[in-house]
Amino acid sequence: MKCEIETLPKIKGGGKMEAHDLKVKEGELILKNIGTGDYLMILDEGGKTMDSRTFAEWLRLHFVNEARSLVLVIGGVYGFSDEVHSRADTKLSLSKMTFNHELALLVLLEQVYRAATIIHGHPYHND
Description:
Blueprint lengths: L18 H14 L6 E10 L3 H12 L6 E5 L7 H6 L2 E3 L8 H19 L8
Parallel strand pairs: 1-2, 1-3
Helix pairs in contact: 2-4
């Protein structure tokens, strides 16, 4: 699996915006960077929860032999706009707890790596 990390720029003046307005601006930026054929999975506290094996099987079934790209997005401090929620193909919850962006990215990347090892029968998952 090919994996790329892209960090979108912060919204100029975002610290002075109302939460709703900032979510809308961030949503526009996110959607501008999503291709029409991309599968969008957003990280959302109300999303599906999966254990590592279930996530690996889901990835295997949907993306290992597909040309379609999976785009995983960690939202802004106030979450996602309604437009991003509407565009999302799936919503995933890493936990009921809230994480800062750096920790959420670390957990997400580790789970993607773990899923790849499960798919390929590597013993990493058993550690």
